[in-house]
TrEMBL record:
This is ATP-dependent RNA helicase SrmB. Pfam families: Helicase_C. Gene3D superfamilies: P-loop containing nucleotide triphosphate hydrolases. It comes from Citrobacter freundii. GO terms for molecular function: ATP binding; hydrolase activity; RNA helicase activity.
Amino acid sequence: MIHLLKQPEATRSIVFVRKRERVHELAGWLRQAGINNCYLEGEMVQNKRNEAIKRLTDGRVNVLVATDVAARGIDIPDVSHVFNFDMPRSGDAYLHRIGRTGRAGRKGTAISLVEAHDHLLLGKASRYIDEPLKARVIDELRPTTRAPSEKSNGKPSKKVLAKRAEKKAKEKEKPRVKKTSPRCKKYRQTS
């Protein structure tokens, strides 16, 4: 991420994350790496939000770390790059995020950092915008786990179905104890 943000073409960038806690974590990490930035998240009061946007637009910082609160309804001119540090959960959110760059006929770049467990979210975004997304593996960040199959359709595998059927059969074999309600029990009274 730091390497990408330090590229000369990245003149004004928005880095999107999913959660408010992650905004603070990433903003601090970037600051430690020497990247001056500001942040925007849903719990901020309006004047703080306005100040963060002003700092980006007037050039005091060139990186804004934000949740999806910055994906809609906020016009920040001349955004050269949008980075999805965390993939959004919906195609609609993806479209709104990347729509912050390349506005008013200008060119812009959107880069999504996708981990193996987010691979299905990338497919969801691609289907939503009805356009294939170019994927490139950064050698230094080559995944150590495999991504789910592109063919995955959310249905359980044959192996999972077989295990479920086996478990159900075992449950049927167990003797069932009929439970009685407390009202049916006889109580012995002593006098």
